[in-house]
């Protein structure tokens, strides 16, 4: 019978499998572009550009995410119970206490950010504090602390670097092909291998994005399991997810740049329906609750 421990191990294995797939896509893409243009210089330039941009976004990821969502510092004298709860769970998890922020939004939600455990922050909405009881709030905070402990912020930054790299190379290839520049070998471009390669280059940003989203969904399952093991009360997080998912109104400042960071889709429950579900950063709430309760 599956337990939270086996779910934790399973999601770790699936994450590494998806990362391996990601690297295969990048190696194949790099090889083909080098083959087509017979010049690896373009690859080196794209790698440097992508790394610089994403290193900067990673270093200041907490400030960017908090600013985009209108978060403010939650002062201890104003939120005594919240600070005490976070402090106790951080001690249990063996983590430094993260900075605590409040988002003035009636939609219940929360996210963790920061480049490492020593520079981490947890932000919660006013709606979350108003809607959840203590056990449910503990489940949510434990989930966010698990993201910090599991180094998910670092992992997601690496994934963003890879997605950015794929997008840059694909865009460069398509533009140069349309303009007829770049010195590509036209005889190479006519053989079947090159035709397959061109199709792959065009589709590679979509493939990369789908893998990125799959990794994000697996890390949510992992944080759920880790958070439940931290509180020893998975029912609390399951109940919290049920309440959060029942709130259909999107957050006021919901945006695609930080959507993957929240415990639940900030665009509301209605965004999880239809073909758009394929591009969601979060797994279905029903599946998360079922896993937590071992049903």
Major sheet characteristics: 4 strands, mixed
Helix content: 55-70%
Shape: elongated
Estimated structural class? alpha+beta
Strand residue content: 5-15%
- Uncertain runs are none
Described by its quaternary structure, the protein is single chain
The total strand number stands at 4
Q: Quote the distance from N terminus to C terminus.
A: 10 Å
Number of helices: 11
Strand arrangement, major sheet: 1-2-4-3
Average pLDDT across residues?
A: 81
Order of helices and strands: HHHEHEEEHHHHHHH
- Please give the radius of gyration in angstroms: 21 Å
List the helices and strands and how they pair.
Layout lengths: L3 H34 L3 H19 L1 H8 L2 E3 L6 H14 L5 E5 L6 E5 L5 E6 H6 L2 H16 L2 H28 L6 H5 L1 H40 L2 H12 L39 H8 L3
Parallel strand pairs: 2-4
Antiparallel strand pairs: 1-2, 3-4
Question: How would you sum up this structure, described in words?
Answer:
The chain has 295 residues and is an alpha+beta fold. 64% of the residues lie in helices and 6% in strands. It contains 11 helices and 4 strands. The protein has helices at residues 4-37, 41-59, 61-68, 80-93, 126-131, 134-149, 152-179, 186-190, 192-231, 234-245, 285-292; strands spanning 71-73, 99-103, 110-114, 120-125. A 4-stranded mixed sheet has the order 1-2-4-3, with helices on both faces. A hairpin with a 5-residue loop joins strand 3 (110-114) and strand 4 (120-125). Helix 1 packs antiparallel against helix 9 (192-231), helix 6 (134-149) crosses helix 9 (192-231) and helix 10 runs antiparallel to helix 11. The longest helix is centred in the last third of the chain and has 40 residues, at 192-231. The radius of gyration is 21 Å and the shape is elongated. The model has no long low-confidence stretch (mean pLDDT 81).
